Structure formats: structure tokens, C-alpha cells
Amino acid sequence: MAHVSAAERRPQLIKAAIDLMTRKGVAAGSTRAIAAELGVAQATVHYTFGTKEDLYAAVMEQITEDVVTQLAAAAPEGGGFEETLAALADELWRSMAEPATNHQLLTELTMYALRVPRLTEARESHYRQVLGVTTALLTETAERTGFALAEPVEVVARFFLAGFDGLTMQRLSLPDGDAERVGLRALVAATVALAGGRLTLTDVRLD
Hints:
By secondary structure, this protein is an all-alpha fold. 74% of the residues lie in helices and 0% in strands.
């Protein structure tokens, strides 16, 4: 059998891990099972990545890259601030709702990563990248359209993404299509209102 370098084997194992865990969940993603998915020895996984956590980090990196690319392409050319936010919400929701896009797997991996210190960097990198592309798109749209931001753009982006994360968890835990559609529309409206200074903020004790 021809030798396959670690550089060549790496994307193959990432794809095998994604395919397996998309079908069966993160809990099924042992190195033995992932190796069997690709038809290689378990030692190949450890030789290529070192540990299961290193492979999981690579999987999160790959899916995050795909999500960021999808978001960057979703913004309508020449669209207004609200139109752009709505397009981002639509793209994120479509991606999350379709298992084939692996967004649901990414959510499951992110929750798993909260309990695994070795995946802290991968989890933080995911949020930094998604926040970064969202912030960049909102900044570009506000500057191009003359939309005056009443709050720092990163605050607006964080608010939008936090709301989306909440809707995602509700869909995965207790789906309700009608409530989800209203919630998504309300999230876009509330984010636009926050960005434009039309949302009254209530003092909340954080200590």
C-alpha cells in the first residue's frame, strides 16, 4: 500500500470525523471509530493529530472556516443595515437547520469543549472568527450607508450572535417553528434598534 503523508491524511481524517459525528453525535467520535470510518488503523489518527482533542480542534476549525465563508458571502451587495442583518440571520439559520452544513455539529462540539480545557483555544477561536466577520460586515454596511451606530459595533455584533445562539439552543432542545420565526425576526429588529439607539436599555445588576 502506498504511503500517505500526514499532510495528506489530515483532511481525510477531518472529513471522516465530521461525517461520523454528524450522523452519530460527538459522543460517537472516538479515535477508533473515526479511524474505522476512513478505513485506517487507529494509530494513524494519533500519528496525524496526537490526541482526540487535537482532531476535534481541527474539526472545529474546519467547520468554523466554512461558517465564516458562508457569512461573508451572505451579505447582499449594496444592502442596507437592516437588510444585511436579516441576510446574516437567514444564512445562519439555514446553516443551523440543515445537518449537512455541520453547524449543529459545531454547536455540539462547542458545548463539549466547555468541559475540555485542551479545547479552550479552539472554542475561543471559533467565537473570535464569527464575531470578527459579523463585526466587519456590520462596520462596512454602516459606513457605506451612513447608518449612525449608537453603540460600538462589536457590542451590536455580540448582541446579535448571543440572541442567535439562544434561538439555536431552543431549536435543538425544544423546536417550535412558529416561535422560531418570530424570534428570528424580533432578533433582527432588536439588533437594528440597539445599533440605531432606539432600544431603551434597562439597568441590570451584574454584581
